[in-house]
Amino acid sequence: MILTVRDLEVTFRVGPWFYRRPIVAVSRVSFSLRAGEIYAIVGESGSGKTTLAHAINGLQKTSGGEVRFLNKKVDLVRTHTIKSLRRHMSMIFQDPVGSLSPRMRVGDLIAEPFIIHKIKRDLKEEVHRLLSLVGLSGDFADRYPHQLSGGQARRVGVARAIALDPQLVIADEPTAGLDVSVQGEVLNLLNDLRERLGLTMIFISHNLHVVHHIADRMAVMYLGRIVETGRTEEIFRAPAHPYTATLLSATPNPDPDKVRKRISLNSEVPSLLNRPKGCEFHPRCPWVQKRCSRETPYHSNQGQISVACHTPLQPGTQPPSA
Amino acid sequence: MNVLEIQNLNVTFATEGSTLRALKNVSIDIPKRCIVGVVGESGCGKSTLINSILRLLPENGKIDAGTIKFEGHDLTKFDLSQMKTVRGSRISTVFQDPMSALNPVLSIADQMLHIQYRSKLRRKEKQEKSIEMLRRVRIPDPESALKRYPHEFSGGMKQRISIAMAMMMEPALLIADEPTTALDATLEVAIIDLLKELQSQIECSILFISHHLGLIAELCDQVIVMYAGEVLERGTAHQIFHDPWHPYSARLLECDPANQTSRTRQLPTIPGEIPDLKAIHKGCIFRSRCQYCEDICTTVPEEFGINGHFVRCHRKSQ
Ligand SMILES: Nc1ncnc2c1ncn2[C@@H]1O[C@H](COP(=O)(O)OP(=O)(O)O)[C@@H](O)[C@H]1O
Ligand SMILES: Nc1ncnc2c1ncn2[C@@H]1O[C@H](COP(=O)(O)OP(=O)(O)O)[C@@H](O)[C@H]1O
Ligand SMILES: [Mg+2]
Ligand SMILES: [Mg+2]
Q1: Which residue's C-alpha comes closest to atom 3 of ligand 1?
Q2: What's this model's pTM, rounded to 2 decimal places?
């Protein structure tokens, strides 16, 4: 295993100083990653995806559990280990242009990781190698970030992330905000790099359909917890958690003549300050039963899928009619 | 009957040393009680189109030619105060960021009363109308919601409130510019359902702008496909989604990941870049990226159409 995350928890304190309250943004998250695998984390905004990524990368203090990367504990206190960690685990950040310093040229941006980690290479050669790996011509090295289109900026972000041959890349919403014609380009690039370089990757997205084409396995997060995880294809074929089923049905079909069977939710996402009792999805769940508001469901296996639900959906289940 | 008729609209922006042609010969009709969707990727001129209708173009922007007829009057001839009257009552808007319509320091009640300042109703009746509107957009407990401030609501709720405010004066035309782009998928579809319901109650028309093909397919009766400032194709939702004539429309549909129901490693894309709108272009604007490009494409294609389905492409007009 390259990465093992066990019972990871991140707590923030929110509110004014006289009324600080803790919110648990990531709660008891566990999973592990094999080399060469792409693992997707999906969930609506605020479900804790970015916080989880930062906790794994050592950018965020945790309040419980542990992260082991290449058999070493990720420990924020030991700056020495953090630096070597960053060398082998890189991030592609959510905001493509904003995460690139505006006054640096693309060439310098791509060379930066070598300089930070004091790795002696022919930088010019490395920049050209990396540019061509992400499908940009050599003259992009002289451009500034604002002279790039959204898709090109993402490519530069990818080039930086793979510069030092990392063991693990964490990509936080790498296709969000891109036009559909460009979104495919970025996904194809990542798929291609995975094949050529054997990349291991955590792929974060709020878009289930994007995940379908890239991830081997996936996890669905709700209020900071993983509610369902398993092989991507199986979850798409037969989601076991009602929340996953809802997300899948929420994508409108680009066909005006199709009859829609949409699962509608009863309310909006609850606040982390006020987590529902029992199963935290129960106030919105169309299949809710009495015990759901009292007992917390634990993960159990249904086929190859692990799901936290008292009555997981069976393949082909229809939503109850209102 | 059409609520809005745009004919040969040309809009340019003055930029350092050159002129950028943001809209070129754009013609659009919005029939009464019809939901018309505009699809197109970023930079194709969607916001410029809306800002031209509302006469809210940035200072360096200018309508060079064309007419925008709304309920029979040409808006390009209106002065500022006439435009203000139209914007407040006959045309209303919903934007991507609900806070662009909401005032953070006023209670919801004050803002909803303010919108009705032209109405002859008494204060109590206006209040009741506000509550009724909030109920229609499904804000829980609308009486107490009125007393609250925008920041006390979630993003999805704020967008519902801004829709309630936009629909309050029963406009003839609602312009919605990417109203769901900042929302999660489950909320997106809820907003779409809501717009559909309100539209049929109020019997207004909607100009719905989005880059999200699935939403357009679900909501709209008619669809306009824009690219680099031009209308390439328009027709009914059925025509555009089932039988796209323009190579760009067809390719765009293929690119939608929701259209790839089985898993693929190689997703379709549209190679190349949107042309530089500051340069002068000869012929078809999509030609540099078109897989069917031929010699004839260096000449401007005429618009060709039958049964309300129109396209600008030499492959159809030949
Ligand atoms: N620095 C912070 N301080 C307080 N709360 C935070 C902070 N960062 C994130 N949160 C909260 O943690 C939750 C998860 O946020 P995030 O990880 O950004 O979600 P996602 O990436 O899935 O949209 C949200 O409720 C967010 O408001
Ligand atoms: N104020 C402006 N000055 C110069 N160019 C502008 C201005 N506003 C928009 N543009 C340009 O006009 C074109 C259309 O922009 P816009 O209408 O915002 O597109 P969309 O809303 O479809 O993304 C783009 O090329 C954009 O860069
Ligand atoms: Mg995030
Ligand atoms: Mg726009």
Answers
A1: A12
A2: 0.89
